[in-house]
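Re-run with default settings, no changes from the original entry. Doing this only to confirm the output is reproducible before filing.
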Amino acid sequence: MKPSFLFTTGVLFASTSSPLVSAANTPVVIVPGTGGNRLQAKLSKAKSSPHFYCSKNNDWEDIWLSVSQLLPGVIDCWCENIQLVYDSAADELHNIDGVETRVPCFGDTCGIEYLDTDIKLSDSAYFADVVEAFVKEGYVRGVDIVSAPTDWRYAANSNHDDYLNKTISLIEDTYTKNEDTPVVLIGHSMGSLWTSHILRELVNDEWKSKYIQTYVPISPVFGGSVNEYKLYATGQADTLPGISSATVKDEQRSYESNIWLLPSAELWTDEATVKTPSKSYGPHNIDEFFTDVGYPLGSTILNRVKPILSLADPKVADIRILYGTGVDTDEFYEYTKDGSWDEDDLKITKGNGDGTVNIRSLESGNEWENVQTKVFDKQTHSGILKDQSLIDYLVALTKH
């Protein structure tokens, strides 16, 4: 999902008493992208801000996705509640005081099918079509089709809530529950970064051979996305009617994961992706960029994230990379006035990609060993998950 659009849910692992299903179908484990699963919050704040009508005390409820919280006026309350703050003394990110968050539905699919459970259509339907297709094939949610939703505001270096180890355990448990059958591991968007990091850094070849039948990155953002520069300079509110980009800019900047999604220096090297009348910016002078857009903290967060930045082969015996192309995708930003990062002073040059991720990032894993790729013409970053040919392709992977 696009980095500025976020989501979360809840349900426990299927208990050990759940019946084993037939190994005729290979079990499926899904790792969603940014904003690709529900997120819940509980409030116990000392004061109401930024407006008198913002709630101070709420029991657990969905904060992502909750369309009613993204309306003009109330979105200011939402931005404060969902943002992260950086504690320099502890070198860590966390919620603001008085806000607790949790990720529901780990080990099930109820957090990734519909992002706003009150609106089961349009952009709220994320993995719904994919999951339903498997259910029609006899799969059981929480048994042989499961997901590992994450608090997508964080990057893998933070390993918030021990997410990495929990996901490894989920894969192992799903294997065991399904008669020791290796899984199809699907990662969409930023989920491709989480999964490739696990496969590359945290497990060995013996583990991968035992537990993974096929690794399937969909709309992978291995090399980042140019539109992250606009997020940090201006904000991204393209899909929020009546909301200015400036309204959500600070909230979006606060997520560690957006640093993880910046364009890779390996792919863009000395190339500029942002220009003003007096300066040009790219990965080679990203610290200057952060300073000039008024977010010097970005350099600190980038230094935290650098150890996990990699385009290396995760070394799996069967990798299928699936992505859309032929969709206009932000490739270059020109701000026409020095010192102004307003949308009104911005000219955007488009290039090839899936509407969110640039083609060079989508293709950056194509030279790995044991890779097959399938391209879906004119399919967008998340729209691809509703493409029937992609769904049929995924189901076919699970047939023996």
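The chain has a mean pLDDT of 93. Residues 169 and 175 are 10 Å apart (CA to CA).
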